UniProtKB/TrEMBL annotation:
Residues 144-269 form the Aminoglycoside phosphotransferase domain. Signal peptide: none annotated. Coiled coil: none annotated. InterPro entries: Aminoglycoside_PTrfase (IPR002575), Kinase-like_dom_sf (IPR011009). This is Aminoglycoside phosphotransferase domain-containing protein.
Amino acid sequence: MLEITADMLKKYLKEAFGSETVLVDYGDIGSLDKQGMKGFGYGKPLLVRFEVDGKQQETVISIMKGDNYGHQFYWDRAAILMFQYETSASLSRHVKPMGIGYINRSGEMRPLQDPGEFFILNEKLEGYDYFHDLDRIRKGRFLDQDKDNAAQLALWLAEIHSSKKEDPHLYTRRIRDLIGSSECIMGLVDEAFDHPCEFFSRERFINLEKKLIDWRWKLAKYTHRLCAVHGDFHPWNVLIGGPDGFSVLDRSRGEWGEAAGDLSCMATNYILFGIYGGGDFSEDFRTLYMTYFDKYLEQTGDIEVLKVLAPFFVFRGLVIASPVWYPDHPVEVRNSLLRFIENVLEDEVFDYAGFERYMR
């Protein structure tokens, strides 16, 4: 837990309430050991007395502490505090917020003035979106460099996934989010498909979710697999052709997770492009897909990943089968993808070399 000092308070109060603000006093207001029968607290409040233009005021400053209930990271906690700042004043009888701020990495308290939306600035990278290469291949022009690119993507994943972390609670959270988050499987089921859905019945959705609960419990024994991840490794988030080779964009859903999430994401897109021509699966995309998988498994030796891939393929399959995200799919493409996500859950170990059979 961060310690707030008098100097930190003085600087913050002057920036937040004006240069003439004077710190009068501060100290603990209660403690985590004095909450009656409540055995779990989210933070230790600090009572602060200060003067603005000779008028004394009081405020209570609270900092959330990290826990295993979805608050492991400072951005988790920031979301909760921003919600409270934005909505507390509109609820009758609720304590009214006086400000919101953050403590920077130099230990300074800095106010946020009337936040409404946030933004980020990133460097501009050279290159073009990888999906353009996949479109070219789909149209019949396969280059030797394409196979090498697939291998390089796999080697990069192997490199980042080699960084491991021991945190069973965080791994469990990532699996819980995979299935239940509004951004992931259940959110996609609810929002990325019409209900009733003309090409995937209510019963099929129900059966899919029931099987995923079984998989959630299967994955509970794999918490040792927590590793560094990208989180959204698809062809629209990869730039090809820069001076240093490929680059990646838009890291998502946390710094740590299951390697199967990244591995399945790009693989699912190879599958999508490979079935787009109609008839048998494209040999060119089978070459990309097998190069990608073989190189990853060869580099990592992680055969165990094949035991945990299935629910991650469901997530990515729902994305690319959705008429919201991909409205122009031919009927058979969409049907093949949906058969894939149903059938892949039936095997204890993903048959990566025989993946076509999951679409039959």
